[in-house]
Each structure stands twice: as structure tokens, then as C-alpha cells.
Design a protein that fits this description.
With 133 residues, the protein is mainly α. Helices cover 72% and strands 0% of the residues. Helix 4 packs across helix 5. The longest helix has 24 residues.
């Protein structure tokens, strides 16, 4: 699951205009900012969060926190980004919606179970439940 976040975060970071003009971003801004144009800092913050959260989970650093924050971030992203029930391109949005639900489920498992013994969490925090080698 972490590589998905890293790849999409990287893509957003280096194609920020695509994120700013994305219909999902516009739908979210209509609800939360009366249709204002999304600020550039919001776009970069979103991309950096996605990239960092994916990297943190990938290497197992602050895994439970990173996974929990990713779940909280993915809920509105899924709701505003893929509203197939509203008739907005259901052929594209329905599979994307369910894909995001599966990612949310995976990150909930990661948040609940933690990183495991081959992680930076196990090394850096000296967790006695994990023995690295």
C-alpha cells in the first residue's frame, strides 16, 4: 500500500497544476471554501503529505501515526474525489472509490498492527516485542 501513496504523491508534486485543476479538488473547494481556487500551498501540502506518509509507512517509521493520518486524509479524498453515486462519471469513479476503500482498510490494519520487526520503529524505539535480526 505504501508504494501507491509514494507514486501518487510524487506525481502530484511534479505536476501540481493537474492537482489544482482536478475536478475532485474543485468539488472539495466548493464545499469548504465557497468554490475558491485552491491555493498553491494546499496543493504542495497535499502532495508532500501523501509522499511522506507513504515513505514513513514503507520504511516503518511512526507507522501507526502515519497510517492513521492517511486514513483520515483518504476519507474526504474518497468522498469528494469519486462520487459515483452523484452520477459523476460512474464508469471511472466507482472502481476508484472501491480502490480507495480497500486502501483505507489496509491502512487501518497497518495502524492497528504496526510496522513489524523489520522496521525503523522496531530499531529506533527499542520495542522489546520485536527483535530485528
Amino acid at each position: 500500500m505504501a508504494p501507491i501513496m509514494v507514486v501518487y504523491g510524487w506525481q502530484k508534486l511534479f505536476d501540481i497544476n493537474n492537482f489544482l485543476h482536478n475536478p475532485a479538488t474543485k468539488r472539495m473547494m466548493e464545499v469548504f471554501a465557497s468554490g475558491a481556487v485552491p491555493p498553491l500551498w494546499f496543493a504542495y501540502g497535499n502532495a508532500l503529505f501523501q509522499l511522506a506518509a507513504g515513505l514513513f509507512v514503507l520504511v516503518g517509521l511512526q507507522t501507526r501515526l502515519s497510517a492513521s493520518m492517511t486514513v483520515l486524509w483518504l476519507i474526504p479524498v474518497t468522498y469528494f474525489g469519486h462520487p459515483f453515486w452523484a452520477g459523476i462519471d460512474p464508469a471511472f469513479n466507482e472502481p476508484q472509490f472501491y480502490k480507495n476503500l480497500s486502501i483505507i482498510a489496509a491502512y487501518l490494519l497497518i495502524a492497528g498492527l504496526g510496522a513489524g520487526k523489520y522496521s525503523l520503529d522496531a530499531l529506533s524505539f527499542g520495542n522489546k516485542n520485536y527483535k530485528f535480526l
